[in-house]
Amino acid sequence: MIEKAFKGTIGYWLWLCFLSALALAGFISYLRQLDIGLGITGMGRDVSWGLYIANFTFFVGIAASSVVVVLPYYLHDYKKFGDIIILGEFLAVSSVVVTILFILVDLGVPSRVLNVLIYPSPSSLLFWDMVVLTGYLILNIVIGWWSFDAKVKEIEPPIWIKPLVYISIPWAISIHTVTAFIYSGLSAKPLWHTALLAPRFLASAFASGPSVLIVLCFIIRRWFGFNIERDVIKKIAIIVTYALSIHIFFMLAEIYTVLYSDLPSHKSHFEFLFLGVPGNRFLIPWTWGSTVGAIIAFVLFLISHKKNDSLVIFASIITVVSIWLEKGFCLIIGGFVPTPFEEYPKYVPTIFELFITLGIYAAGGLILTILYKTVVSFRQSK
Amino acid sequence: MEKPDEMKKAIDLTPKKGDWMTPEVELKKGTYCYGAPLKHQKYLELPNQREWQPHDVDWKLPENWKDIILDGMAKLLKKNRAFKLFMDICVRCGACADKCHFFIGSGDPKNMPVVRAELLRSVYRRYFTIHGRILGKLAGARDLTVDVLKEWFYYFYQCTECRRCSVFCPYGIDTCEITMMARELLNLVGCNIQWVVEPASNCFRTGNHLGVPPHAFKETLGFALDEIRDLTGINVEAPINKKGAEVLFIAPSADYFASPHWYTLLGYLMLFHEIGLDYTWSAYASEGGNFGLFHSAELAKRLNAKIYAEAKRLKVKWILGGECGHMWRVIHQYMDTFNGPADFLEVPVSPVTGTKFEHAKSTKMIHIAEFTADLIRHNKLNLDKSRNDNWKITFHDSCNPARSMGLLEEPRYIIKNTCNHFYEMPENTIREKTFCCGSGAGLGADENLEMRLKGGMPRAMAVKYVKEKYGVNMLACMCAIDKAALPPLLDYWVSGVDVCGVHELVGNALVMKGEKKRETNLRGEPIKGDSKDTK
Amino acid sequence: MNRRDFLKITGILAIGAASHQTAMILLSSEVKGDQAKKKRWAMAISFSACVKREGCRDCIDNCHLIHNVPEFTDNKDKIQWIWSSHYESVFGEQTNMFTKGMLKNLSILCLCNHCENPPCVKVCPTKATWKNKDGIIMIDYHRCIGCRYCMAACPYDARSFNWKDPKPFIKEINRDFPTRAKGVVEKCNFCEERITQGLLPACVEACPEKALTFGDLNDPESDISRLLKTRFSIQRKPHLGTDPKVFYLF
Amino acid sequence: MKKIILGLILFLLVAFLPLGYNIYTGKKAYIPVIKAPEDKKECVENVFIMRKRHNIVLEKWRDASVRHGIKKYVSLNGTYKISLTGTCLGCHSDKTQFCDRCHDYAGVKPRCWDCHNIPDKVAEK
Amino acid sequence: MKIILPFFTVVLIACLVYGGTRYLEGHILFGIIVPYICFALAIVGFVVKIVKWAVSPVPFNITTVCGQQKSLNFLRHSPIESPASRCGVFFRMLFEVLFFRSLLRNEKVELYGKERRLIYGSDRYLWIFAILFHWSMLIILLRHLKLFLEPIPYWIIMLQNLDGIFQSHIPPVYISNVLVSIGLVFLFLRRLKRRVMYISLPSDFFVLFLIGGVILSGMLLRYVYRADILLVKAFLFGLIYLNPVPYTGFGTMFYIHLCFISVLIAYLPYSKLMHMAGVFLSPTRNLRNDSRARRHINPWDYPVKEHTYEEWEEEFKDALKEADIPLDSENKG
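Structure tokens for the assembled complex are given below, as produced in the milestone run.
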């Protein structure tokens, strides 16, 4: 089936070339990073995790969110999701690859990455993250590919798929939970040190992931004639709406706890994020942007069911951006600032860092394009 | 014969334990072709002439038959690199195994292309390689015995030379080539089949397979002209042996004797009339098909020679070929080599559109689908698609035009422009992966029907699929053997799907200048569809 | 892995050598190591002694010289094993309106606390950092993959990462101590390489005012045990439960 | 036919290229001579073992020293301090003449020197 | 039988070498004589085989066409699957040789369910593992060049470092070693499937076991029974410059590895392993699909007995007259 991905219009090939060029640029930048070291990035001794880990966190959420289409289809027998489920699974596959790439480029000595396997350390959440992410990747590839294959052949999927699907549902929850635990287990970082982090991650994931899916659905509907029912998109939009509301609620609960208790070490992070400190107000627009964005998106989703598609697309894009900023960027940077020495260092990603990040997006995009093209071509050939 | 379901149920694609090394073959009635009659062997001056049948215990082989074959093999190895190469480099990966329609349809493990070739290879190893000579059976080498010969006969006349396996082989090993070599060898000791030798002999004598003499040929064309007149009210001409015409037209002889080929013939005639083509038929070279190809390269060349000779004699500028399968294998890949160079002809130029067919600049012969597609592209034909609305059509790529020529888009282009309802079969069964009808390469004999039905099963199943899914009721194809073999095949497996030629569709859709209102299609069936409603 | 296992593994070497068999034994530096009581190394830093010399950096310089710690010009690449910072920054939670004035600009020496309950060790995905039997938090630079999880986990900012190749930034290379390669995390090792030879840590040795005291907490007779028993001491961020082994004396 | 023979010759040429390459570089008879320290007779282990397995010995040393605090190594030849810079390069004082020669010949590029220093006396040269 | 015999043949080779070098001082035999003989057999056999192929002409243009021909310019021609130019053939061969294009098409046919529906599924396992196996083999081969070149070219060191990029053990485990083993094991396991077993010959298993022996002995040589690489290289230099030095200190594993390789290359030209050269010569792949635009010459073409028009006209004169078809003979006359 995959050979379908290598037949397409000129526009399609241009798109592939564009992504490949970006990925290549990212790769070249990465070679430079390998040569010079991570000093090439904007990260430093105080903000020692940056754009890479932010993206990693965000894309784990996207990957986990495929569960919101899988779950209704398999557990509640909501047959209308039958078409979109494969899109969700393939989105998860490419997102997991992206997260793995982001982890890889963030390593100081990537050639030693096998040490994680050779010296397994169950006390480390990063170890568990590796376990759940690779497991999730394999699960999704297997489930996605075999059920797609069955669909192409017009046969029943193999019987062992079902148990795997049931495993994959809690597994999806687990990948984002473990990712949250990476942060929330650290007493050194008050911003992260909250039990609400994992639930917040999940809520935001179930808002952002399906939003990405909605945008993708519109794209393939517009350009590839893969007609996904409006009902289906509407249903997903409803899921996003609820997830967003929970996400906003969690955020407010967090802010209340910190502000009311007035604990200085906790408060200082929120003050930095929302108000900034003299000389470092870098994150203010992003924090406010994401918060307000989430609320706007929520409102838009609420009213969208009567309006046209573009509103849904617009709301989805705002959701994605808002959550990327909130869960990824602001959360990671904000965790490091202020430092234990109460300093307020600045973190600005460098051009190399941006290129590498874009390169990874492009690589993910390539995988996604190829997988989606396969699905879409199959649909067209029917 | 068994019912289709039973036949399908009996198929087991997993062979029994063991291997293919023991030469044994059971000639089951219905799965092999009869031997060639003495008369035709004589006419073609073939070796070891005798009356014989494969089911005879004694095949009346010459005394030194083994030497003849081994000598022949040595010569062929020297003459043909492909043969030698294909004997040496197979790694037995098995990628070809389930690509063969005969294997899929029969489950007979010796029908896996790799084993078919191994039947020959084992003898090659035994007599032509060091390790085979020393290690014998361990190296997969076998002595040449009568049983081996019988096995060859059975299985190499169970290969339609469709080349589907060759598409999948990582080294491009072409079982067609191996079958050809094996048949050359079998012919050296006179083991050939009626369905190959008789048409070849007829063709050699009269110019066509059926042995129709020139006056009968002219008569049938006349019938066709009458039919066209009845249908359209137009007087169409069909010049024969007209010297100085621009184009010589050559079609398979089945087109003017068999059905549903006949309607394709009507299509040609109407088309040529409509565009005012200055062309001629030939009574001498009234056959495009070439059964010599299924016998030996030499016989293929002998039969093929007529085409250029006739073109030269009639002083035409170029040659146009009709809808045929293996005819096009010969014309595309062999004719120029056999009987070229055709320097007395000109590079084909469409007199209507002015398109120069550069891709045929040496052979100077083009396929009618290329010609018609070009006409349609240049808007030279007035086509009413709705006249084919009776049918939901699918297209069967014939093996030879598909895999030996790459004629894939031209017929589709024509079909899409002549009908409203076109549906492709599953993609694993079309274009370069197309499945054979099961009756090619001279295996279309009635006595071989069971094997033909088995071999045609994959094709039939694909047709069944589109029939059930889209309600397809017409299978278009571009091969005379297809047109003859597919109707009984589809009758057996599918039922309710007819077979037509691509130019039958053209004939139906073609709105001719000055024609009367058409009530029926070329088959005399009332036309459904819009055009009738607007009457 | 205990020593017995270790010997077994090295024994395999000899088997592999086939025709040239030979015994290979690896010995610990302390011959009676197993019998001796476990050490609990700790350090006490006296505020009062430390402030006596204005601008003194002897301990820092000596440590960084001995351990080949590079000096980066760019603050974000900075690597430090031992350094000084303001009181309010180090003891932020133990600051009030009065100390702010009183202890203003008081420099406090900081280094890895070699916590009894180290958060950095727990998070390492490759066991590249661990607490050794003497309580020292070690880093295996051969195993570290540079994920920097330990840096995020350390509440004391004691860990530094080699953002670039450190070699060009080392003023003078001490050839008896290895440098580090880019991409690994490093920090103060309590001069593990010196104390196994019976020496004092470099910083302790270098201090002209004897402001730093180093010794074994498990030995009630050691200098440091006596000192901590008699004088008031504080630790950094004790509420985090890490139980630092660096004490600050008044 | 001509093309195939040409291809065959080309293939054989490429296959035999190493022969020419070494003649071209003038190293066809080159075998690195390793300068053993003059004042010492035996290494930490038998020389046969050291030639084949010094890397593994060093790996064990590394793990023993770094991870297990084991600082001494006892073999039939005596007791040694576990130290690449101190012990090994103490005798094999000339890294370029000893380590590098053979490593270059065998195409091995150990990473030890990324961090571990060459002793003063060599570096000063 | 198909499996056991080849397996024990390979084991026997190993045993011979083991016993020969360990107890019988056969270092010269297994270290020098056997490699020389095998190499000679390999080169001679290889050249002879290729020349034999080469002297047989390709009488007809028999391209297997897998895409749209180049005909009318408004139809999208498939330049690689149906190459009309040299360039197209070049790329077709490139994809075939480097990426096993044809094998990538592989699919599996099943008769599914009660109604025995014919279904086709893509089946790329063979492709994946064949790619793994062959590419790893190539990398391993190139890596071994370091034993034959002095000074070692930079790119070989680069390749070797990339291959061993994962620092896990000393010496590092090469990725290619792992992949080649996975590939080989798969190729072996699939031969056990009933249908592939049916078509397999003992020689198919022999090759698998022999290559397996080469890989296994090579890995043992690297990770367990190490040889002094300095001596190995010096020894190989002696071999290739026909100045063999009978060193003895390598250990048995080295001789086993060397002999396995020798047997493998000696066996190569006489076996199906020649597919590595044959794939370049396959006329169904390396010819252009332009046989109507360019005449293909058959060197042994000979005149055949034809039924000429004159003979035909003579035979059917009456019929032609009856049908009013013009006759050449009468027009002339």
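Chain B has two domains: 4-30+47-191, 201-509. The first helix of chain B runs from residue 4 to 9. Further analysis is deferred to the final report.
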